[in-house]
Recover the amino acids of this structure.
C-alpha cells in the first residue's frame, strides 16, 4: 500500500489521537497547569512507544520534563533528531474563541484548538510518519531520535543545559524541526535564518528629587532632555544604527540571497495599508523582506519618565528610562553588541546626567546556507509532495533553540514547517489546516527516505 | 501712642484673632470643606467690618466667594487695592504635622498652622494695619479696597472674570499683595518678575497597532524613535530652545537687572550639592538666578510610550507621548509661543509618523520695573522697618493672578511679602515667623503713609 493510501485509511484514527492530545491543557506558563503539562508529556511518551520507538524516557528537569525516544537500527545511515514541544500558550482572552480551546473541533477542513499548529499538531506528524514507515517497511531508512520539550513557550530555560549535558545521547547528522510555517497556502518554505536578540535597559538620572519647573527650570538638567539626546544619538537621520562597529559582523547580502528574498514576494503596499503606516521605513537600499530578514536592528521598546497623567504638571523629572532590544544577524555576537552599545551610551551622556545600563537577554542569530545538502533534500521532499519548489526564507524573529541545536550538536537544522502564517498562533482560534496535516505526513516520509 | 507701642499692646489680641481664623479648615480643593471655606469668608468679612472698613460684601461666584470691602475717604489721594486669599492647601500627610494643622500653636516665636503664612497670616496684617491707623488717626492717608478670594490654591478660576466684570469697583492706583517671601531672615525682597506659562501635549503615531520587533523590526517606523527625534530637535546641544522665534520677545538683561540678581546671592555650589546634581545646566552666559528668573524655558515634563514593565518586551510601539511646559518672560505671549512650537513640531515630524498637538494652559509673564515709584516707596518702607534695603527679585514660578491684576486694572502691583522661604508653604508644619508679623504691620502702616 502506498503511503497516501495508508494515511487516508488511518486519517480518522490519527486525527482522533491528536484531538485527544490537544484536549490536555498543557500551558507551561501557568503553574496551575503543571499536572496537565506532565500529562501531555506522558501521553506523547506512550505514543512514541506505540509507534515503535525505543528507549522512551521522560527526563525530569527543574521545570517541565523533556521526552526522549529513538530508533537506531540503520547502521551506516545518518541520524535525524526531531525536536518539538508539547506545551502550549495561554488561551486568554477566552471569550474570543469560537469553540473552547481544549475541545478540538474541525471546521472547513481546519482543526481548531490550542496547540493544533504550535506545536502538537506539527510534531505529531513526525511520530505518525515514523510509525507508518515502521508498519509498512518494518524498518526505518535512517536512525531517528526525538527530543520533545515542555517549556518552549516559556523560553526553554532548561533545554540548552539538557543539550549540553546529553550531547552524546542527542548526537545527530541533522536536526528536524516543524514549528514554522509555509509562506502561504500551497507555497512551502524552509527557514534558513532567524535573527538573534539582545536587550538592555537604560536609566538616566539628573537630580536626587523631582524639581519644580518654575523655581528650577532653565537652571538644572532635566533627565528627559538627557535621555532624548542620548536615544536620538543611537540612529542617524536615515534610521541606520550609529553605534560604532554595530554592522562589523553583518555579512553583505549575496545576489543569491537577494533572489530568495524576491521569491517571498512581499506586497509592500498592502503591508503598509494593513498596518496603517504613513510609510515603510528602514535602511536605504533594502526591501522590507531584506530589512527584517537580513539586517540587524536597534529598537526602542519603551521610554518613560516624568508625568503621564491628564493635563500638565510642572515637574522636572529626576530620572528617565529606556528599554532597548536589538535583532542580530550573521556573525553578530549579542555580548559584543551589548558592549558596543554600552560604550556608545557612556560616551554620549549629556552634561549633568549619569547613566546606568543593565544588560538583559542574549541570543545568537541562526543562519544556514540553502545549498546545505540536507536543506536541498528537504526542498526535494516538499517539491515532490506540494508540486512546487519551496522558498528559502529568513525570518525576522528569534527562536534561540534553533541556534542552540545547531551550535551544540554541530549539525544542520532543517526548519520544515507545515503551519500557515494566519493560523492564530498564540491567539484565540488557533488552528491547523488539515491539507498540510496530510501533505506534512507525506513530506516527512519522503524526506526521511532521501536523507 | 506710636504704632510700635500700639501693636505691642494689642499683640495678644491680634494673634488670638488670627488663631481663630486659622482654626477654620478652609481647604478650597476639597468639596467636603465647602462650608468651612464659606465660614472663613464670613469670618474675615466680619473682621473687615470691625476694623472700620465699609461696603463689606461677600460676592458669590461659581466656586468660593470673593470678599470685598473699602474705605474711600481720602479724596485726591491714591487708591490701594489689597489682594489676598482666605483659602488654604490640603494638609496631608497629616502624620508629619507636629501639632494639628488647624490647632494653631506658637513655638520658638513661630505660629504653626495651615494658612499661617500662605496667606491668612500675611493678609491679616493689612486688616490690622488699617484698623490701627483708623484707631490712632481716625482717618486713612489713602483710599483702600480689599479683594479677598477663596480659590487661590485651586488656580483662581473665577477671579479673572470677577476683575473684568468689576473693573470700576476695583479700580486702583496700586495693587498690594503679601503672598511672597523675604529672601531670607532679615533680608526683605520685592518680587518684580514672575514667569508666564504655557503647556501642550504631543502624541506621535506610526501604526494602527503595536508590532512585533522580530517580524517587523527594521522595516517599519517606531513611534518612540520618531518622538525622540522630534523632542531632540527642540533644544540645541547647549540647551538653548531651537524653536524659531522663541526668544524674539525676550528682553536682554540690563546691567541694573543683573546687579539685582547678584544681590540675591545664590550659592550655586550649595544648590548643586543639595539637589544631588552632577552639574548645573542652562543657557550659556547666565547665572542660575538669571536663568530661572529672567530666561524662558521649554521643559519636557513627561515622555512615555511602549513597554514600562520589568525586563524586556519585543514591541514596536504604535504611539508615544510627550508633555511640555514653557516658562515665559518679558513680552513673550503664551499663545504666540504655543503656535511657534506647534509650527516647529509639524515641520520636524520624522518620516512615517503623524503627530497631534494639544495646547493646554496659557499664562502671561509679569514684570515691573523696580524704579516704578510705588515699588520705591515699598522699598523705603521696608528699609525703614527692617533697616536694610530690600532686594528686587524675579521669581521663576508663575502666579497668573499678579499679571491679571496688573493688566486688567492697569496698575502697578507691589508684591510685599513677609513670609520666609522655609516656612513650609503647601507642606506639613506650615508656620509664620512672628518677627515678620510684627515688622509686617509696621511696614504696611509705613507704606500706606508714603503712598
Amino acid at each position: 500500500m502506498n503511503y497516501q493510501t495508508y494515511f487516508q485509511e488511518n486519517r480518522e484514527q490519527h486525527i482522533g489521537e491528536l484531538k485527544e492530545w490537544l484536549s490536555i491543557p498543557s500551558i507551561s506558563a501557568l503553574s496551575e497547569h503543571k499536572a496537565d503539562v506532565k500529562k501531555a508529556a506522558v501521553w506523547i511518551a506512550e505514543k512514541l512507544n506505540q509507534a515503535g520507538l525505543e528507549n522512551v524516557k521522560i527526563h525530569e528537569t527543574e521545570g517541565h520534563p523533556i521526552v526522549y525516544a529513538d530508533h537506531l537500527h540503520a547502521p551506516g545511515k545518518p541520524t535525524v533528531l526531531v525536536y518539538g514541544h508539547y506545551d502550549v500558550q495561554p488561551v486568554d482572552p477566552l471569550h474570543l474563541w469560537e469553540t473552547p480551546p481544549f475541545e478540538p473541533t474541525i471546521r472547513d477542513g481546519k482543526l481548531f484548538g490550542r496547540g493544533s499548529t504550535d506545536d502538537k499538531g506539527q510534531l505529531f506528524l513526525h511520530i505518525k510518519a515514523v510509525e507508518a514507515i515502521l508498519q509498512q517497511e518494518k524498518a526505518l531508512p535512517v536512525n531517528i531520535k526525538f527530543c520533545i520539550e515542555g517549556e518552549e513557550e516559556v523560553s526553554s530555560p532548561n533545554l540548552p543545559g539538557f543539550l549540553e549535558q546529553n550531547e552524546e545521547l542527542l548526537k545527530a547528522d541533522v536536526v528536524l524541526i516543524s514549528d514554522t510555517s509555509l509562506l502561504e497556502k500551497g507555497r512551502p518554505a524552509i527557514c534558513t535564518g532567524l535573527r538573534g536578540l539582545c536587550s538592555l535597559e537604560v536609566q538616566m538620572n539628573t537630580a536626587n528629587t523631582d524639581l519644580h519647573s518654575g523655581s528650577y527650570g532653565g537652571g538644572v538638567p532635566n533627565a528627559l532632555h538627557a535621555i532624548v539626546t542620548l536615544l536620538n544619538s543611537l540612529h542617524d537621520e536615515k534610521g541606520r544604527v550609529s553605534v560604532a562597529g554595530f554592522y562589523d559582523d553583518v555579512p553583505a547580502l549575496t545576489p543569491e540571497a537577494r533572489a530568495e528574498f524576491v521569491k517571498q514576494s512581499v506586497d509592500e503596499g498592502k503591508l503598509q495599508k494593513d498596518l496603517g503606516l504613513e510609510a515603510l521605513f528602514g535602511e536605504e537600499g533594502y526591501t522590507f523582506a531584506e530589512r527584517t530578514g537580513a539586517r540587524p536592528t536597534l529598537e526602542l521598546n519603551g521610554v518613560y519618565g516624568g508625568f503621564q497623567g491628564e493635563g500638565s504638571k510642572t515637574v522636572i523629572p529626576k530620572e528617565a528610562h529606556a528599554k532597548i532590544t536589538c535583532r542580530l544577524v550573521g556573525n553578530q555576537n549579542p555580548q559584543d553588541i551589548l558592549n558596543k552599545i554600552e560604550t556608545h551610551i557612556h560616551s554620549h551622556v549629556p552634561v549633568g546626567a549619569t547613566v546606568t545600563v543593565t544588560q538583559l537577554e542574549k541570543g545568537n542569530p541562526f543562519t544556514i546556507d540553502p545549498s546545505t545538502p540536507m536543506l536541498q533534500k528537504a526542498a526535494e521532499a516538499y517539491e515532490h509532495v506540494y508540486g512546487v519548489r519551496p522558498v528559502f526564507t529568513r525570518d525576522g524573529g528569534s527562536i534561540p533553540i534553533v541556534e542552540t541545536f545547531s551550535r551544540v550538536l554541530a549539525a544542520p537544522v532543517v526548519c520544515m514547517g507545515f503551519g500557515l502564517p494566519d493560523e492564530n498562533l498564540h491567539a484565540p482560534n488557533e488552528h491547523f489546516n488539515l491539507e498540510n496535516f496530510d501533505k506534512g505526513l507525506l513530506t516527512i516520509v519522503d524526506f526521511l527516505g532521501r536523507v
Summary: Chain A is about 35% helix and 20% strand. The longest strand of chain A covers residues 196-205. Chain A has a mean pLDDT of 96.
